[in-house]
Amino acid sequence: MQKTLRLENVTKRYGAMTAVDHLTLTVPSGIVFGLLGPNGAGKTTTLEMVEGLRRPDDGRVWWGELDVVRHPDEARSQFGVQLQSSAFFELLTVKETLELFHSFYRRRLAVSDLISRLGLEEKQNARVGGLSGGQRQRLALAAALINDPEVVFLDEPSAGLDPQARRNLWDVILGLKAEGRTVVLTTHYMEEAEVLADRLAIIDHGRVLDEGTPRELIQRHMPASVVEVSRSVGINSTVDLPAVRRMEERDEVTTLVSDRLEDTLVGLVNWAQREGRAITGLTTRNATLEDVFLELTGRSLRE
Ligand SMILES: Nc1ncnc2c1ncn2[C@@H]1O[C@H](COP(=O)(O)OP(=O)(O)OP(=O)(O)O)[C@@H](O)[C@H]1O
Ligand SMILES: [Mg+2]
Fold first, then answer.
1. Taking the model in full, what pTM does it have?
2. Which of 6, 68, 73, 99 measures 20 to 30 Å from 47, CA to CA?
3. Which CATH number fits the domain that encloses residue 248?
4. At a CB cut-off of 8 Å and minimum separation 6, what does 214 contact?
5. Residue 39 CB less than 6 A away from ligand 1
6. How many CB atoms lie within 10 A of CB 38?
7. What domain count does the chain have?
8. Tens of pLDDT, residues 146-165
9. Would you say the CB of residue 187 lies under 6 angstroms from ligand 1?
């Protein structure tokens, strides 16, 4: 069972644009691996090449000893795939849809088990065309699991889900891992990446900017703390505070990334006293993956 997924120099060009640029990654068996990146970073294109749905212009993809680029059909029969937007027959019911998928495979899970695992019992006789976005998303995940796959690819599985449904989905994904499956997912949600992913690759412009566990990424790029104050305090880039690596003003909050929290706080208090300003809305926190992302790409994940 212990199969590794390997991408070697995988490249995809669309005309003059290189969507995926010599991407090399190894996904060990039995973990949740996250691909994190802004819109257009190349996440979906990468997944499609790994899934055997799109042929790379260059590079190799290995699932254990299987060459996915040369044997895409064989690879696909072993993979569970949830696309970013799934097409279904709108007139079939949920149950009929899963029964149809079920009929395609020899190795498979029971439809009724998948319906209950994804919480679709009440909708099993409803037509797919009438499902809400979140219900459709759950159907897509159930369909991805029908062939009892060792590796499951999920492209933004929680897009469009409400917070409760998102948490339920996280449980389902952690359950897949507990069963020994490998899960590769893309997400825009940092919290989701932090909760689910054992390892992450941060991708931008089709390249891996860095890769590691969430903790490693935070420590490598952000040994720093974050100080937030209300924007009305009047701190801006003309105010020279000690140990501030980066400052950002957004909505009502000014964010200071500090290499030495104590020095920055003392400097902030001294400045406020000198200028006769009240400090409001002061909080401090450890850096998060969101901060790492901003540091590496200069962009936030969803802007
Ligand atoms: N079929 C295609 N033809 C031409 N360009 C494409 C095609 N598919 C994707 N691209 C381009 O390749 C780049 C990467 O797209 P991709 O869909 O892989 O990004 P993504 O990281 O999945 O983005 P998102 O977060 O929006 O889903 C984008 O610039 C996109 O416009
Ligand atoms: Mg995408």
1. 0.83
2. 99
3. 3.30.70
4. 193, 194, 197, 200, 289
5. yes
6. 18
7. 2
8. 999 999 999 998 887 888 88
9. no
